[in-house]
Amino acid sequence: MLSDLRALTRPFRIMLYSALALQALAGVSSLFPWLAIARLVDADPAAYPFWLGVAAGGLALWLFAQTLALHLTHLLDARLCHRLRSQLAAKLARLPLNWFVRQGESGAARALSQDIQALHQLVAHAPAELVQLAVVPGCALALLAAVQWPLLLFALIPLLAAALLFRVIRSPRLRPAFEQRDRAFRQLNDDYRQLAAHPLLARQFPGAGIEARARQSLRGFLAAFHRWLRRIGALGAVTQLLLSAALSAGWLLLGARWLVPNLTLAELALFVLLLRSVAQPVMAMGHGGDALRAATLAAGRIRALLAHPEIRWGGRSTIASAPQGAALQLSDLGCRQDERWLLQGVNLAVEPGEWLAIVGASGSGKSTLLRLIARYSEPDSGTVSLDGVLADAFSAQAFNQMVAVVPQENTPPAMSLRDNLTLFVDGADDAQLRRVLAALGLAARLQDRLDDTPSLSGGEAQCLAIARALLARRPLLLADEPTSAQDQQNRERILTALAQLPATRLVATHDAELCRRADRVAVLAEGRLLAVGTPAEMADHPALLAALAERQEADDEV
């Protein structure tokens, strides 16, 4: 815990050390009122003003130091959270896409929101509580030992037993119970988020799909929570009982009667008051144990994320390709998720200006291949070269000047139609925008709404993404199922626009007509490149026929 805390708070260490020093001062000064009250029990009346002054001074010093210490730790928490959110936002922009795939839909949200929020206990409260745990009991025990050390040893038995139980609760033997509970809760949170985001699917398929997963996650969490409660609940209850004021006072009176029959009232009062000062920091750490553990795990995850390998970019800032096309070379390209290869051993050369259709059954690796070429993900083996230059030798700006991507998911940004079309191109006039809209069948509804933010259907959003890529005039176009949401008339428009484009085009598709018009067809199956050839050469290839039949069956169902 301390190593993660030191690493995260290193830029703010002066503020942190100041807060810790103030908390130590507050801890020591908090003992003076109890000492003064104990002395007032049998003090001479002439000494009352002195001890009242000690109590008031200690209380004032405690209030000042404690308030300032907590102010500093909460200010540190706010500044650290701001810094980490900025760092994580920048980091997420540089991470390969496969990180997001592995983390699931809520991975980025967990890092930016939940993990940052969990740090509050670790940063704003834990340092002060740890200092108080070290300083206050130490001073109180030293004072009580000087008064009656045999009684002190007896009085510490419940506290030591509670500390031992607390250690058992946090031991590696019981850690799996916490981990299973936390893992089940995260799964429940993710599945309920899916359920809330897709109410129509839940209504359409009651008791199945995402609703069934949410119910299963709820049952899994309840089972994990009950297992945790059976193993931890009794130990936690006994710990709280041992630290309670009633048991502490009763145990102290028993020890006083047995060990020190002549104990004065002032000494008894001092023991009662200061033993609570010893127990309270331990109780605070116990109550905040779950939050502290969650914060510790969050700090570890944040540090791991900040250290995660990023997409590598080089220093080459110029490109050699013209809009007429870039030469593409894939050498032994591969990508895996966990231990499973999504794509393996792909070797392929594409000539400048060539139109290559990439075909395969769902899950064959088509989208993965396009993501690797687009540098959304880093390959686990092999290389991608453009015009003879390794893709990772280009700067991010230069690479983006070479490649345009039409993804399978085409939800447009919330901005005007004009801004959407010109995301990747400067200086396009209205005539150019209207021409590309007309070429894709969007002119009738959208050509006079360039400054509006219209609501688009799935097919229109797909056409908008294609129009954006056509306007960008990049040497290499990567398109993933660009005709999947189109009727026959719009498919023809898109195929015509692709055929007229001078750039090198790689299109993942199940569209038989697109395959017939392409210069070559590449067939993928189970992450491997089976064959490449002209449409005539590939017409009877079994894997090609199976992939096209898959699309035909989907169309027939619709």
UniProtKB/TrEMBL annotation:
Subcellular localization, as worded in the UniProt entry: Cell membrane
UniProt name for this protein: ABC transporter ATP-binding protein
Record GO terms (molecular function): ATP binding
Transmembrane segments: 12-36, 48-70, 151-169, 232-252
Membrane topology: Multi-pass membrane protein
GO cellular component, one term: plasma membrane
Species the sequence originates in: Serratia marcescens
Domain ABC transmembrane type-1 residues, every copy: 19-294
UniProt keyword terms in alphabetical order: ATP-binding, Membrane, Nucleotide-binding, Transmembrane, Transmembrane helix
Gene3D superfamilies per the UniProt record, alphabetical: ABC transporter type 1, transmembrane domain, P-loop containing nucleotide triphosphate hydrolases
CDD domains: ABCC_MRP_Like
Start and end residues of each ABC transporter domain: 328-551
Matching SMART domains: AAA (SM00382)
Pfam families reported in the protein's UniProt record: ABC_membrane, ABC_tran
